[in-house]
């Protein structure tokens, strides 16, 4: 990225030599991102991240099809950047069906099929959950949508670059991804839009990205995303195997040393690097703070939720009782984490959980 932050500063929309140099770098990145998900380069639209990509997909497809119908299908465990656009569409008169999930966080494909109506204009189901790591049965749901000629979108921000993602095998028409989730820079992402999918752009202006997203392109960010996609494609299998082994080591260590530690999510249909564990009777906020003091970074939910208070909608949808929801932490394992890091967590966690449980009892 460094040359495009300082020396190669041309606008890729400009016809002069500086612009052509930047445009060539954009084209290379577009090809790398497309190759990672089995797409055509021309079907990649660069965005500011996963949130914009999800908003562009939901609002863009729904508004483009408003004369044909006003019904959208999604799930109860989507990221906020899908749930909130769906709420916004309701203010415009759209109806939204939110599919329930089972105790492991998966939708029933038959529920999705039953939810489709004559006026359904979009189905949006995430690929891998950002809090519990559960993977959804996308290909089966996509077949139902395709049989009814309903565009199918997936939020693949958590899965792209970590497991195999192929837009044709999944059967999706739109797919969102984000740079920082696959070791690229923050503030850049992409939306895959299958050729022929109607899409009203969120941003109107100079007609960039084939008229699908007007704005001067973030050249350094896009170059970084392209390189990250290239590296992820090259290392996909080896990284996934190593990370899954570390996740298994962490889970085994936690359940062996901490009583009433309950893992969340599907045992096999899951992402390799996300481990959600509920510690019954603990206060997760206090536990996360104690672990942070010890140099261990974990989360009580999604970092994308901002300052919102209240229980995680994902854990609520799973049907977890309140004492488990309050004590839930998400551990994320990625490239750069090793066995020593995992063993350090296993070593200090029992003491931290005891302290958090004691504090929770004190606070009532």
Structure in words:
This protein is an alpha/beta fold and 364 residues long. The chain has 2 domains: 2-232, Aspartate Aminotransferase, domain 2; 236-363, Aspartate Aminotransferase, domain 1. It has 12 helices and 10 strands. It has helices spanning 2-6, 17-37, 50-64, 80-91, 109-115, 138-147, 167-170, 219-257, 284-293, 313-318, 322-325, 339-363; strands at residues 44-47, 71-75, 95-99, 120-124, 152-155, 174-178, 189-193, 261-264, 274-279, 328-332. It has a 7-stranded mixed beta sheet with strand order 1-7-6-5-4-2-3, with helices on both faces. Strands 8-9-10 form a 3-stranded antiparallel beta sheet. Strand 5, helix 7 (167-170) and strand 6 (174-178) form a beta-alpha-beta unit. The longest helix has 39 residues, at 219-257. The chain starts with a helix and ends with a helix. The mean pLDDT is 94.
Summarize the SSE layout with pairings.
Blueprint: H1 2-6, H2 17-37, E1 44-47, H3 50-64, E2 71-75, H4 80-91, E3 95-99, H5 109-115, E4 120-124, H6 138-147, E5 152-155, H7 167-170, E6 174-178, E7 189-193, H8 219-257, E8 261-264, E9 274-279, H9 284-293, H10 313-318, H11 322-325, E10 328-332, H12 339-363
Parallel strand pairs: 2-3, 2-4, 4-5, 5-6
Antiparallel strand pairs: 1-7, 6-7, 8-9, 9-10
In a nutshell, what does this entry contain?
With 364 residues, the chain is an alpha/beta fold.
- Report the structural category: alpha/beta
**Biggest sheet strand line-up:** 1-7-6-5-4-2-3
How many structural domains can be distinguished in the coordinates?
Answer: 2
Identify the overall geometry: globular
Radius of gyration: 21 Å
Question: Which fold name fills CATH's third level, the topology of the largest domain?
Answer: Aspartate Aminotransferase, domain 2
Low-confidence parts, pLDDT < 50 over ≥5 residues? none
Tally of extended strands? 10
Instruction: Give the CATH level 1 class of the largest domain.
Output: Alpha Beta
């Amino acid at each position: 990225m460094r040359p495009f932050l300082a020396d190669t500063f041309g606008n890729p929309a400009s016809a002069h030599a500086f612009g052509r140099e930047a445009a060539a770098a954009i084209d290379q990145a577009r090809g790398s991102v497309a190759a990672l998900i089995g797409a055509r380069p021309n079907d990649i639209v660069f965005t500011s991240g996963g949130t914009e990509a999800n908003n562009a997909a939901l609002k863009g497809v729904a508004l483009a099809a408003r004369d044909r119908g006003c019904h959208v299908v999604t799930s109860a465990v989507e990221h906020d950047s899908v749930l909130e656009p769906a709420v916004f569409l309701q203010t415009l008169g759209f109806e939204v069906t939110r599919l329930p999930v089972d105790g492991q966080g998966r939708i029933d494909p038959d529920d999705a099929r039953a939810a489709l109506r004559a006026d359904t204009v979009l189905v949006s189901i995430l690929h891998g959950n950002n809090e519990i790591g559960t993977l959804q049965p996308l290909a089966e749901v996509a077949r139902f949508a395709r049989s009814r000629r309903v565009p199918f979108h997936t939020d693949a921000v958590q899965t792209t670059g970590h497991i195999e993602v192929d837009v044709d095998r999944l059967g999706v028409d739109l797919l969102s991804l984000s740079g920082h989730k696959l070791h690229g820079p923050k503030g850049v992402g992409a939306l895959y839009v299958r050729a022929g999918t109607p899409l009203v752009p969120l941003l109107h202006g100079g007609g960039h990205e084939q008229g699908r997203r007007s704005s001067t392109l973030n050249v350094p960010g896009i170059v970084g995303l392209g390189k990250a996609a290239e590296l992820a494609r090259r290392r996909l299998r080896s990284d996934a195997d190593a990370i899954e082994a570390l996740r298994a080591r962490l889970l085994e260590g936690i359940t062996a040393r901490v009583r009433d530690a309950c893992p969340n999510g599907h045992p096999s249909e899951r992402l390799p690097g996300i481990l959600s564990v509920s510690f019954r009777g603990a206060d997760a906020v206090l536990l996360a703070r104690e672990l942070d003091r010890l140099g261990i970074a974990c989360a009580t939910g999604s970092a994308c939720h901002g300052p919102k208070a209240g229980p995680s909608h994902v854990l609520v949808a799973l049907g977890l009782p309140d004492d488990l929801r309050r004590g839930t932490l998400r551990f994320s394992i990625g490239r750069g984490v090793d066995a020593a890091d995992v063993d350090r967590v296993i070593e200090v966690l029992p003491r931290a959980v005891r302290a958090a449980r004691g504090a929770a009892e004190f606070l009532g």
